[in-house]
Amino acid sequence: MSNARKTVLTAAGELFGHKDPSAVDRWVAADYTQHSTLAADGPEALRRLVAGLPEGFSYEGARVIADGEPGRPARHVPRLRARPSGRLRRLPR
């Protein structure tokens, strides 16, 4: 499994599987752009979204598509990008 794939799966699992708002500090870049209408852009909005996930919410990753080249994006649902720094941001469409 590529590093990009591991990064994306770990970050999404911590954020949405474990509902851990502190994972934002470990994985999300300051210029994070949110693709969902559920939250605004930026780490703080994502932190609020994760903190407010309702009781009974469950997360299951649908897929990860990782490009084999270093520094290339890994795609996941939700669409996040693994940067060389290990932080994530939205992929361009």
UniProtKB/TrEMBL annotation:
Biased composition (Basic residues): 73-93
InterPro entries tied to this protein: NTF2-like_dom_sf
Disordered as annotated region, ranges: 64-93
Gene3D superfamilies linked: 3.10.450.50
Organism domain of life: Bacteria
Name used for this protein in its record: SnoaL-like aldol condensation-catalyzing enzyme
Species whose genome carries this gene: Streptomyces pseudovenezuelae
